[in-house]
Amino acid sequence: MRVELVPPATRVGFMGPNGTFTEQALLSQPDLAAADTQPFDSIPDVLNALITNDVEMGFVPIENAIEGAVNVTQDALAFDLDLRIQREVVLDVQLNLLALPGTQLEDIHTVVSFPVAVAQCRAFLREQLPEAKIEAATSTAEAARQVGEQQLAGVATISNPLAAELYGLEAVTEAVEDHVGNQTRFLLLAREGVPAVTGHDKTSVVVFQQANEPGSLLAILHEFAARNIDLTRLESRPTRRVLGDYCFLLDFEGHIGDEVVSDCLRDLKMKQGNVKFLGSYPAAGGEGEQVRRASNANWREAADWVQELRDQMGR
Fold first, then answer.
1. Which fold has domain 7-92?
2. What percent of the chain has pLDDT over 70?
3. pTM for the whole thing?
């Protein structure tokens, strides 16, 4: 699998400040780590910088294994912006309870962190710090920066080892998340362009129902089932038009360059009318070519059979 590399001079915006899980995921990609990376205060700020050409690419979270979709990213892609996904990155998340060096668990009276991180550690906080005050920060890294730079005694944050290193903190307790195997998925975005087929790809689309009627979702899903295309994610979101009107965000294995995928999208567009293409891009994780190769072969066999029948017309 060959992933297209990002040139070192490329400006890549990410959700800051320095020390966020977003930066940690970005730094896991050697080409992105070597690029001109620029932190922004929030996900909307990253996306706005991309639209206004202040950066050439944006790197943002899209979903977490425990808390689900990051709606601010998801809705911006579905409704507000025309961007293309260039790559996905999956990060194994470990949440540590950080504080000033020498701090003991019994010294902590306040925990400040990003609300999503706090939500992933409810059991630990309830059992180990039941009296602690919980305060919200705009990111895990911002919370760590506050504790470190302001030397806040008795205040802890839930963050990652990168933030601890940057802001002079130590882990009071490691791995405080409630569930083992926590992961967050990130997307590399650009204003345009579709990466080449790698053999291990995903495609993301938004499908707006032509009519809200019984079986409409089943009709959409049938297009994938009929072609043996594996859906890896399905989310519904209100369309912002009227109560009860929903669209569907789908990720599935394969690339627009695959015959079976292009055939599927062609039928979806014909039958549903409004389909927004978000991108075909290299997938994270292990290889998954075998099923897709078989699907393409089956599609070509079926297409050849139909063409032979059509060739008999007028004989």
1. D-Maltodextrin-Binding Protein; domain 2 (3.40.190)
2. 93
3. 0.83
